[in-house]
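subagent[fold] <- orchestrator: predict structure for attached chain, return C-alpha cells only, no commentary.
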Amino acid sequence: MVLEQEIPRFSAWIGPALLSFLLAASLVALFAAAATWLVQAVASGPLEAGDRVYRGVRTALGDFAGIATGRVWALARLAVQESLRRNVLVALAVFAVVILFAGWFLDPANVDPGRLYLGFILGATNLLVCTVTLLLAVFSLPADIKSKAIQTVATKPVRTGEIVLGRIIGFTLVGTGLLLVMGLVGWAFVVRSVSHTHELLKTSVREVLDGDGNPAGFQGRTSAERGHRHFVSLDAAGGGRAETFRGHRHAITARQDGEGLAFEVGPPQGILEARRPLRGRLVFLDRQGKPAEKGISVGAEWTYRQYIEGGTASAAVWTFEGLSERDFSGGLPLEMTIRVFRTYKGTITEGIHGTLQVRNPSTQLRSEAFPIVAREHTIDEFWIPRTMNTVLADGRTQQADLFTDFVSDGRLEIWLQCLEPAQYYGVAQADFYLRAGDGSFAVNYAKSCLGIWFAMLIVISLGVMFSTFLSTPVALVASLAVLLIGQFREFIARLFASQVTGDSTIAPGGGPIESLYRIVTQTSITLELDPTPAVQVMKLTDTVLLAPMRVAAGLFPSLSALGTSDFVASGFDIPGDLLAAHAAETLAFVAAFCIAGALCLRAREVAS
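subagent[fold] -> orchestrator:
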C-alpha cells in the first residue's frame, strides 16, 4: 500500500538511485555494443567490426552534441500538426461520454464517495491520455517511413536525435493539452458530485438541559441525503457541527426567524482534503499484555490489518517521534481508522467501545483512559488535550502537561484497547496519525495529474523508440509488453528480498521453482516448507534465478509506481520528495529511450 511506505527524502534517495541508473545504463550499453560487434564480426571479421562499432559510437556522440533547438522545435510542431490531422481531439469527446455515463453508474450513496469519484476520474484520465499518446507514438514514424515522407526530413541537415526528440516533444505537447482539459473537467465533476447538504428541521431537534434545568444545547438528526444521516450536537446558541459519518461532516449555524431558531447545514467537510500526516510505528500486545510480533488473525484473507481482542490486555501501541511544542502547542489532533470484527451482532447500529491512553515511553507515566467508539468506514477524530489527568501508582489522579510529562525526547506512545469482550479492533500502522497540517486539495489534485503526465511521457518515449525500427503493430505490442513487465517490478523486488532474507511474509510463495512445487503438491503459500536438503537446494536455486531477474526488472518502467491517485483519493497531501523522485526517474527513462531510438533510427539509414 502506497500510504504505508516510508517516503525517503529526495536528497537521500537521489545518490543511490543515480548510481543504480549509471550502473544499469553502463551494462545495457556494453551489452548493446557487444551484440553489435558480434553481428558485424560475422559479416566483416572481428577487427573491422570493432572499428565500425568505435566509429558508430563516436559519430553518435557527435550527433547528440550538435542537436539544435530550432530544428527540434520545428519537428515538434510538425508532430503536433500530424496529431491534429489524425483527429486526436476525438479523445476529448470519448472522455465527455465517459463523464456523462459515470453519473449514471457511480453510486453517490457509497460509503466513501470521495475515493470512488477520484479513483474513477484519475484512472479514466490516465488510461485515455496514455492510450492516445502511445498510439500516436507508434503510428507516426512507421507511417512516414512506409510512405517515404521521412526522406524529405532525413535528407535535410537534420540529425536522427533531433527527429526522435522532436517527435517526443510534439506528442508530449498534444498529450499535455489533452491532460489539461481532462484534468479540469474531472476536477469540476468530482467537486460537483460529492457536494451535498442536509436539512435540520426544528421537529428533528430536541433541547438539552443541564443539571440546573437551564438550556445547554440541542441534539438531533439531519434529514437523509445520499443514503445517510448525521447526528448533531449543538451548543446553546444553536451552532456546532454534525457528527463525522462516511468520512465527512457538516458545519451547522443557527439564525432567528419568526418562530425561533432555524438551522442551516453547510457543505460537506473532510471529503476533498489534503492532510499532512505524522505517522508512528506500530507494535502489538497479546492477551496477557506481552509484546507480540503481530496482532490476532480473525481469518481474513487480507492480512494488512491485525486485530486486538476486546476485554483483555491486548493492545495496539503507536510510537510517534519528532513531536515538538512549537508544532502542536494546543494539543495533538489524532485521526484514526479502526476496523471492527464482531463475533456476535450486539446493537448493530452502535459502534464498539474502546479506550485511548497516552504514555511516556521512558517513564511509563500514563494518562487516564479516554473513551472512544469505533465505527466502520470513517476516519474518527480525537483531540489529545494539552493538559490531562494522569494515574499515579496509588490510584490517585493529578493533572499533567502533555509535553512536560508525557513527551520524552520528542517521542510519545498512544495505546488503543477494545473494551467489549469477544469483539475485535483491526488496525494497521498507517491507520493512526497526527494531523500535522493541511494542503490545498486543488494543488494536490494537480500533483496527481503531474504523475499522469510522467507516465504519459514514458509511454511516448517508449513508443517512439520502438517505432524507429519496428512496424506499427509490432511496436505497439513491444511497448505494451515492456509496460506490462514493469508492473511486476515491485513484486520481483519483494520476492528477491524475501528469498535473500528468508522472510516469507515479504512475498509468500517463494520463487519460480518453489511456486511450481507448491502448485503440484497443492501446498498453501501460507505454510512454511520443512527445511529438508531438497527444500534448501530449491530455495537456493530460486535465489540464483531471481538475481538476474531483479537486475533486469529495474530496466523496465513501472507506471503504477508513478501513480499517486491513492494519496488524493485517501485525502493525503502528496509529498514533494515523492514527486521529485518520480520526476528524476521519468527523466532517466526518457533520456535512455531517446538515445536508443536515435541510434536505431540512424542504423536504418532511412535517407538512402
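orchestrator: received. Logging for downstream: The mean pLDDT is 85. The first strand starts at residue 205 and ends at 209.
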